[in-house]
Design brief:
- This protein is α/β, with parallel strands linked by helices.
- Helices cover 34% and strands 22% of the residues.
- The chain has eleven helices and 13 strands.
- The strands form three sheets. It has a seven-stranded parallel beta sheet with strand order 5-6-7-8-9-10-11. A three-stranded antiparallel beta sheet has the order 1-2-3. A three-stranded antiparallel beta sheet has the order 4-13-12, covered by helices on one side.
- Helix 2 runs antiparallel to helix 3 and helix 4 packs parallel to helix 5.
- The longest helix has 15 residues.
- The two termini are 16 Å apart.
């Protein structure tokens, strides 16, 4: 068995804004495993400035992983505990290698084209006109759940946008999630949550920055809107530390990005703990290419979570890989009449 890694730069169709800044490109890495003239591919979806494995030795660790690929997926997962995106890439690559079709990792009614996955429509930050335009497009496309990035423009403008949606659609017609990416100051967070509560939101992601566990715990006790932890989970490696974090904060939801939390195995650990303490959860992609998104979607379907998932990011890039995933009426489908366009020969 041998393995190699390759870097790939994804270009956004239009600049995409969060409270941490505007993105025009996204770096990703692929691990290709070859054994007995068969190949498998995995994506290591790092997000610079956010992933806990955004470290100077990242490429060095990729090289070590490929040199030691014969250790197998379980030993490598343990050895890569501080590199969750590489853990995920390795898991995906081994699953791809073991599959008859390298892109059909988890056969199901979803991959048969019989069932779909409900997803949210993502609204990027920008000025009021830009965000309103995105909202109108997503609603016209049949989305019944919108996720708005907030925290970068004037808060009153964001409240007006939420008011615009609610003037036209009831909570039963359109579910709204907001994601602050830690943008609220601790001293003002509860006041802002009280203002947001009037719009009957599903939840708010990460209202304050991570590692403020005392403040986040208090917020979760007194919030008028369910709080979902996202960035808070990044860099928490051991099962004991994961459990302690959930017990300390006791959020209403957690959001799981396999590239950030150790792939399928790491995500499953969080799910089991969340369910132990009656904390709800959903899965989202972390701006991977369609290679990683495909694997996440297929695995997510097997988890049988009926809430809208965060998996509608495949159309963000100009140079993504053609794949079998399609979005229609706010649902993610697997179209078997299409094919993946990922040429192993080039790698």
């Amino acid at each position: 068995m041998k393995a190699a890694y390759h870097k790939y730069i994804l270009d956004f169709k239009q600049p995409s804004g969060t409270s941490r800044g505007v993105m025009t490109q996204k770096e990703t890495w692929f691990i290709i495993i070859e054994n007995n003239q068969k190949k498998g591919v995995g994506e290591c979806g790092i997000l610079r400035g956010l992933s806990c494995d955004d470290r100077p030795d990242y490429e060095e660790k990729l090289a070590w992983t490929c040199e030691n690929i014969n250790l197998g997926v379980d030993q490598l997962w343990e050895a890569l505990i501080e590199f969750p995106s590489i853990q995920f890439g390795v898991e995906m690559a081994f699953q791809s290698l073991a599959s008859e079709n390298p892109f059909l990792l988890f056969p199901s009614a979803f991959t048969n084209g019989e069932k779909s996955i409900p997803i949210n429509g993502l609204i990027w930050m920008g000025n009021e006109a830009f965000m309103k335009q995105q909202i109108e497009v997503k609603l016209a496309e049949g989305f019944h759940c919108l996720k708005l990035k907030i925290g970068a423009i004037d808060f009153n403008e964001e409240l007006k946008l939420l008011g615009y949606i609610r003037q036209n659609f009831t909570p039963e017609e359109v579910e709204i999630k907001v994601d602050a990416n830690g943008a609220f100051d601790k001293s003002e967070a509860l006041n802002k949550l009280n203002q947001l509560a009037g719009f009957k939101l599903h939840s708010i992601e990460q209202p304050i920055q991570k590692n403020n566990t005392d403040s986040m715990s208090e917020l979760c006790k007194s919030t008028p809107i369910p709080i979902a932890l996202d960035e808070e989970l990044i860099g928490v490696f051991s099962l004991e530390d994961k459990e302690q974090l959930l017990l300390k904060i006791m959020p209403q939801y957690i959001i799981l990005k396999p590239s950030f939390v150790g792939g399928f195995r790491g995500t499953n650990e969080w799910i089991l703990l969340a369910e132990k303490y009656n904390i709800k959860w959903w899965i989202t992609s972390a701006l991977e290419s369609n290679i990683g998104l495909n694997a996440i979607a297929q695995w997510t379907f097997l988890k049988d979570n009926l809430m809208p998932q965060g998996l509608g990011t495949g159309a963000l890039y100009t140079n993504n890989f053609d794949c079998q995933l399609e979005v229609s009426q706010g649902q993610l489908w697997f179209n078997n009449d299409k094919e993946f366009c990922f040429d192993f020969i080039e790698y």
